[in-house]
Design goal:
By secondary structure, this protein is α/β, with parallel strands linked by helices. It folds into two domains: 6-235 and 416-435, 3-Layer(aba) Sandwich (Rossmann fold); 246-414, 3-Layer(aba) Sandwich (Rossmann fold). Helix content is 35%, strand content 15%. It is built from 14 helices and 13 strands. The protein has helices spanning 6-14, 32-46, 74-87, 112-118, 187-201, 212-219, 246-253, 277-285, 322-331, 346-353, 366-369, 384-395, 400-414, 417-435, and strands at residues 20-27, 50-57, 67-69, 123-126, 146-150, 205-209, 228-231, 260-265, 293-298, 313-317, 334-337, 358-361, 376-379. The strands form two sheets. Strands 3-2-1-4-5-6-7 form a seven-stranded parallel sheet. A six-stranded parallel sheet has the order 10-9-8-11-12-13, sandwiched between helices. Helix 10 links the parallel strand 11 (334-337) and strand 12. The two termini are 30 Å apart.
Length: 436
């Protein structure tokens, strides 16, 4: 069957009823999940959809009226700082609670659900809503159909965002290994029961998994297995994240033009075990003796105790704007993503969109983006030796330019903002047809 050409696609997409979509996210542009929500919002607007983004904390100060913050006044902004602390109070009874990636979502202040209803949406799309923004029970108070976009596992677990080797979410949570709990009726069981009650009452609840891995996990979860699932990836603006002349990019970042540049990006890589800093350190140490390598680390500042990678390392800190980030990806020969558990990495998508191949572990949703030895390298999970093999394979590859071209083509075909927005629009149309 022949696919319709682009002009016919546009005509077909224009033939849908006018709809208002409210995208809900704790933050607008801070963090990978927020960026995914924000990029979807902008992509829907560009396709003619009346989209509004409703957030707790707004970092984007460009005056965009389509982003509504629940903390416009100074006193509310101050209170939002402590909402996250209050939401984590129940975790205090557990060991090492400050390091646990677990959201209770029990704070129910500011009448958030009513404020969403006042916007009169046709569909509400919930993304990452932790840190005291929405409590679980708010979901059933939303009048419109709700789509849960899974940026991580939280919506179908008893509170953890990543479940590691635990599969209790398939039956029911309790005796939680992340909480180091020894009792069945612990905080994870309480949160699981709260979600169960809400999801059973909210009949018009739909699920979007941003990777095949997270979609499959949700489909077998005890909480969401009976809901309709769709797999739609996170979008990227390929007009912003695009290949830029490497010499020019290195001039901008003051990087040597004669060296092989390896890029690594992560927020708090030393404190978050999931980021795989230990594994990447071990892998890079296996490259000792290669005098033509230099490493660039973004997303975090230079630590007090600097790891010895045996070759020069540049720390460029957190990068606030996408254009600068695109030039950094373009300056590199290779990007490393050693995450031990990953849903759908923005870093991988952005790097490939700029034509820079990636080495990552074969975990989670990474295989959705990286085609092994075609646009990057998928290393055996948690194996520093194979990760080092992947680095060598790409840097020494005689067909390196082909890898770069494959990387760009993969993103244009499957992750471009327009492609993703149109998949969401089709889902919106289906959901609205269910209501009629």
């Amino acid at each position: 069957m022949k696919q319709p050409n682009e002009k016919i696609k546009i005509i077909l997409l224009m033939n849908f009823p006018k709809m208002k979509i409210v995208i809900v996210s704790t933050y607008d542009i801070e963090g990978g999940a927020a960026k995914g929500a924000y990029r979807l919002h902008k992509a829907l607007l560009s396709e003619g959809i009346d989209s509004v983004m409703f957030v707790m904390t707004r970092k984007n100060e460009d005056g965009d009226y389509t982003i509504i913050s629940d903390s416009q006044k100074r006193i509310k902004k101050a209170f939002n700082v402590i909402r996250s602390v209050l939401d984590r109070l129940p975790l205090r009874i557990y060991k090492d609670s400050s390091r646990i990636q677990f959201s209770v979502s029990w704070i129910g202040l500011n009448n958030i659900a009513q404020k969403i209803n006042n916007l009169k949406p046709d569909i509400v799309n919930l993304h990452w809503i932790a840190d005291g923004f929405l409590k679980i029970e708010d979901i059933q108070k939303i009048n419109a159909p709700v789509i849960l976009t899974l940026q991580d596992a939280w919506y179908f677990t008893g509170g953890c965002h990543y479940f590691w080797n635990c599969e209790k979410y398939i039956s029911s949570c309790g005796n939680c290994p992340l909480l180091q709990s020894k009792i069945e009726f612990d905080l994870s069981k309480i949160c699981w029961l709260r979600k169960k009650r809400v999801y059973e009452k909210k009949k018009d609840l739909f699920v979007v998994g941003t990777s095949r891995w997270i979609t499959e996990c949700s489909q077998k979860s005890s909480l969401l297995k009976n809901k309709k699932h769709t797999n739609i990836p996170a979008p990227v603006d390929t007009n912003t994240f695009k290949p830029i002349d490497k010499s020019l990019a290195r001039e901008i970042w003051n990087l040597p033009k004669s060296k092989k540049i390896i890029l690594f990006g992560a927020v708090n890589p030393l404190s978050d075990e999931r980021k795989g800093f230990k594994q990447i350190t071990q892998a890079l140490q296996k490259l000792k003796g290669r005098t033509n390598l230099e490493l660039v680390i973004f997303g975090s500042v230079k630590p007090k105790q600097v790891p010895d990678f045996s070759f020069p390392t540049h720390y460029v800190g957190y990068i606030n704007d996408d254009i600068s980030l695109a030039t950094l990806y373009s300056s590199a020969d290779l990007t490393l993503v050693p995450s031990l558990q990953e849903n759908l990495s923005n870093v991988i998508i952005e790097s490939l969109s700029c034509g820079t191949p990636v080495v990552a572990f074969d975990v989670g949703g990474n295989k959705d983006i990286i085609a092994h030895k075609i646009n990057g390298y998928l290393a055996k999970p948690y194996d520093p030796d194979d990760f080092a093999n992947g680095i060598r394979w790409i840097l020494d590859n005689p067909n390196y330019d082909e890898l770069r071209q494959n990387a760009r083509e993969k993103i244009l075909k499957e992750f471009d903002s327009k492609v993703v927005a149109r998949k969401y629009i089709e889902l919106f149309k289906q959901i609205l047809s269910f209501k009629e």
